[in-house]
Amino acid sequence: MAKVLVTGSAGFIGMHVALRLAEAGYEVIGMDNLNTYYSVDLKLARLRNQGIATNEIQYNRVLKGANKISFVQIDLADQHELTELFKAERFDYVVHLAAQAGVRYSIENPHAYIDSNVKGFLDILECCSRFKVEHLVYASSSSVYGTNEQVPFMEDHKTETQVSLYAATKKANEAMANSYASVHGLLVTGLRFFTVYGPYGRPDMALFKFTKKILEDEPIDIYNNGELERDFTYIDDIVDGIINLVNLNPNDRAQRHEIYNIGRGKPVRLMDFIEELEVALGMEAKKNFLPMQAGDVPKTWADTSRLEKATSYAPQVNLQEGVAQFVEWYLGHYNISRS
Questions:
Q1: Residues 6 or more apart from 119 whose CB is under 8 A from it?
Q2: Does the residue 154 lie in any domain?
Q3: ∠ CA(329), CA(331), CA(336), 5° rounding?
Q4: Which residues contact 221 (CB under 8 A, 6 or more apart)?
Q5: Residue 136 placed within a domain
Q6: Coil, strand or helix: which one is 1?
Q7: Which whole-number Å values give the CA distances from 84 to 70, 80, 91, 115, 246, in the listed order?
Q8: CA angle (15 as vertex; 13, 16 as ends), nearest 5
Q9: In this model, does residue 339 exceed pLDDT 70?
Q10: Is 145 in the active site?
Q11: Closest Cα to residue 176, out of 249, 130, 124?
């Protein structure tokens, strides 16, 4: 049975990936530092959803759970503990999703992004190389495209104009991964995620924030006066793409390091997105229109043809279905009854 490390397994995407890998027959060890960037309660709920007894978590101790998923709390900055984990477990694959997230927060707390996203990623690369991991899949971001105005975004477009430190760290990750593939022969795949949403999503993301505000009858902040478009992509489609890449035969690849866009490939106007949420909630939002916020871009749109060719990637969940499923989860998770 192949063993996979999923970093960031108490995170939104990480939880869903860990569950799907376990269902597919892998032995999964999840890792997370459980920081306080947003609600730790939500992170612990995600771990419980994976069968982890969260009251038994101890730092740097692997806790066996249900569903072939175990968990260990380690910070990426703890190089010694991370190295010892790799040495003891001898992972076949690593899906690296742990990072300091958030474009806007990177303006307020830049050092956290260098520590986690740059130094932490270096430690992951070093461990994967030293302990002969067969394949490392890591999270990049659509934010690396920065001010690029060519649409849809393609992997060979120039990516030298990031507009946030978060985006710059993700661009740095791609360069670092490429160097380890070239120098050490490490098999590495980077995924540029496009606005992922769905159940157990992050509280700092638009869908979560808007839902909370609307239910509390508070106005929602709409930047650039609503003139924004995003390639919203449902979590199940994202996970399908990740799992298919983990399983990809290295002999089917031309390069040791590949980068893929992973999105729905259909940008949605922000106002249309809000309208779908209003329908799902049965409530109208109070809207507070604001100018463009620092670190934002007006439009994202993924060209996913490269991923489609490599893995037969084909997103299935449309916006209406995805928003409705998120709302059902939100109401159930927070015990809110429809009025």
A1: 76, 77
A2: yes
A3: 160
A4: 288, 290
A5: yes
A6: coil
A7: 16, 6, 12, 19, 24
A8: 65
A9: no
A10: no
A11: 124
Kindly state the tokens that stand for 159. 């990516």
Q: Are 204 and 102 in contact (CB under 8 A)?
A: yes
Higher pLDDT, 297 or 162: 162
Quote the domain boundaries for residue 132. Answer: 3-197+235-266+301-316
Read off the amino acid at residue 231.
D
Half-sphere exposure of 154 (CA within 13 A, CB side): 6
The 10s digit of each residue's pLDDT in 201-259 is: 999 999 999 999 999 999 999 999 999 999 999 999 999 999 999 988 777 787 999 99
Mean pLDDT, to the nearest integer, of 155-179?
95
Q: Cα(300)–Cα(289) distance, rounded to whole angstroms? A: 20
The first and second tokens of residue 139, run together, are: 């999270």
The gap between the terminal CA atoms of the chain, to the nearest Å, is 48
Cα–Cα dist 266/206, whole Å: 18
CA 172, 113, 202, 219 dihedral sign is negative
Nearest residue to 52 via CA among 26, 75, 22: 22
Residue 186 has pLDDT above 80, yes or no: yes
What's the number of domains the chain is made of?
1
CA-nearest of 321, 326, 337, 221 to 270 is 221
Judged against a pLDDT cut of 90, whether residue 55 lies above it is answered with yes
Number of CB atoms found within 10 A of residue 149's CB: 11
DSSP 271-309: HHHHHHHHHHHT-PPPEEE-PPPTT--SB--B--HHHHH
In a domain, residue 327? The reply is no
- Mean pLDDT throughout 35-42? 96
Q: Give the residue carrying structure tokens 């999964």.
A: 28
Q: Which of 93, 105, 138, 166 is catalytic?
A: 166
Is residue 43 over pLDDT 70? yes
| Residue 123, in any domain of the structure | yes
CA distance 125 to 96: 10
Cα gap 56→73, rounded to integer Å: 11
User: The domain spanning residue 46 has which CATH number?
Assistant: 3.40.50.720
